[in-house]
C-alpha cells in the first residue's frame, strides 16, 4: 500500500483549513487517513507561527517508513529541516529559442553598424570644422555652392527622364494598336 503525506481540506467555502495527514495513496483527498501529523491555515499571515503546525517526530517516522510527501507538504518539511526539497525550476526553459537569438544578433549587428556610421559622421564633421578653421571662411562657401547647384540640376534631369519613358511607351502602344 503506497503511503502519502498530503493535505486534507476542511473549512467552509472560501475559508480553507488543511490537515497534514498520512493516508493510503488510493484514499480520497478528504477521506480516511492513517494519522494526522499537523495542520495548515493559509488564511494566517506568512510569518505567523500558527500557520503551519507539524509534529516533526511523527513526520520523521513516516518518512523513514517510506511515505511520499506531496509538493506542498514537501515545502513544509523543507522549512522544518526534515527533508530537502529540490528546486523544480528549469533555467533552460527561460532561454529564448534559436530564431529569437538570431534576431537579437542581427539587431546587435545593425546597432553596431549604426554606431560606426555615427562615429564616422562625427569624424567627418570634425574634419570639416578643422578645415574650415584653417582656410578663410569665403572659400568653403564658394566650394559648396557649385556642388549644390550641380546636384540640384541633376535631380530634375533624372525626373524628366523618368517621366518621358512612360510617355514614350504609351505613344508606341497607341501607334501599334
TrEMBL record:
Alphabetical keyword list: Ribonucleoprotein, Ribosomal protein
GO terms, molecular function: structural constituent of ribosome
Record-linked InterPro entries: Ribosomal_bS16, Ribosomal_bS16_dom_sf
Annotated stretches, region: Disordered: 82-177
Bias type Acidic residues, positions: 131-157
NCBIfam families, A to Z: S16 (TIGR00002)
Name by which UniProt lists this protein: Small ribosomal subunit protein bS16
Protein's organism: Alterisphingorhabdus coralli
Amino acid at each position: 500500500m503506497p503511503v502519502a503525506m498530503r493535505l486534507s481540506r476542511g473549512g467552509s467555502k472560501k475559508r480553507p483549513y488543511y490537515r497534514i495527514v498520512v493516508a493510503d495513496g488510493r484514499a480520497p483527498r478528504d477521506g480516511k487517513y492513517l494519522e494526522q501529523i499537523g495542520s495548515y491555515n493559509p488564511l494566517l499571515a506568512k510569518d505567523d507561527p500558527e500557520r503551519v503546525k507539524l509534529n516533526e517526530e511523527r513526520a520523521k517516522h513516516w518518512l523513514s517508513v517510506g511515505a511520499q510527501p506531496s509538493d506542498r507538504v514537501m515545502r513544509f518539511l523543507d522549512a522544518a529541516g526534515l527533508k530537502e526539497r529540490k528546486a523544480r525550476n528549469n533555467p533552460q526553459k527561460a532561454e529564448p529559442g534559436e530564431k529569437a537569438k538570431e534576431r537579437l544578433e542581427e539587431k546587435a549587428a545593425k546597432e553596431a553598424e549604426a554606431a560606426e556610421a555615427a562615429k564616422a559622421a562625427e569624424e567627418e564633421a570634425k574634419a570639416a570644422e578643422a578645415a574650415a578653421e584653417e582656410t578663410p571662411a569665403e572659400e568653403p562657401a564658394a566650394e559648396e555652392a557649385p556642388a549644390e547647384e550641380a546636384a540640384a540640376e541633376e535631380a530634375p534631369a533624372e525626373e524628366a527622364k523618368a517621366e518621358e519613358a512612360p510617355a514614350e511607351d504609351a505613344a508606341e502602344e497607341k501607334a501599334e494598336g
